[in-house]
# Entry
Amino acid sequence: MDNVAQGGKAYGLLKSQQEEKLDSINEAFLSDAKYAEEEDLGSKLEMFKKKYMEFDLNDKGEIDLMGLKQMLEKLGLAKTHLELKKMMAEVVGGTSKETISYNDFLNMMLGKRNAILKLILMFEGMGKEQEPKDAGPPRRKTFSDLP
# Structure
């Protein structure tokens, strides 16, 4: 049996186990009265789950400092160790934890506080889904705009 396939398979299994765990947490949030007023909660949770799984999760399925660092670097936002620790503390509400669990992540994304990480992810997510609306004066036409 070759090991390469095995590793990939194990990774796939880990991912699907992680996803099941996240799905069950999503279910709990869906039935939480605290979020009953939240519109499109189901689709938001699905989106947050996908976003969370884009991070390089550790073996417990949580985002550690390294995972956070790599994700931000992918987005072109390299941060110092101190900045990363501050961002993480902001999400988990203290410096004692070294990881962001999915619960922490959802509380951040659905919460009222605007953690830096939340703003980055919201901004990054919005950039992909829709073209930015022009808030300022219309931009000048260039030759490439001509029919």
Observations:
- Residues 1-5, 129-134 have pLDDT under 50 and may be disordered.
